[in-house]
Fold:
Amino acid sequence: MLFSAHRFIILFPERRISEYIGNSQNYFLTSEGVLRTKSTIMNSQKFIVGGIAGGIVNFILGWLVYGMLLRDFMASNASSGIMRADSDMIWWALIVGNLCVGFLLAYVIGKGGAASAAKGAAVGFVVGLLVSLGYDLIMYATSTVMTSLKGVAADVAGSAVISAITGAVVGWVLGMSKKTVVAA
Structure:
């Protein structure tokens, strides 16, 4: 062998070998040699489970925060008559919307490498805060859906808290089985 693995490791210590070999698997160089992590299929499974778990948690917390705790407050700080009665809810849209939020958080948390409940909560909080603040301020400026800045503040706070808890669940799911390194 003209070019030994030892020399390769010295030339490229602790670097992603996939940058050099262009493979879809995750290969890493360590002092033990070339190592491979589990395939991206496992990461896809974590993404799907994390997105579904996040969607379910977001749905339950949305009902708790907006349907129970802030129901009267939001009704007095938003345009009257905009909320559907419980009997008129379009359930499929509500479920799909919550799943989309779960998958958004799973995507962002996964891309950020946050594989713990604490890191997921931090990312979820920031995403929830920025998305709801942006959306609510635009709605406050351009429509009569939000009629007061108190309503905007309550909605942003509620969304940030819900997203933080949802993010914690997603981060926990994504980090449930840490990447195990196996010899190539």
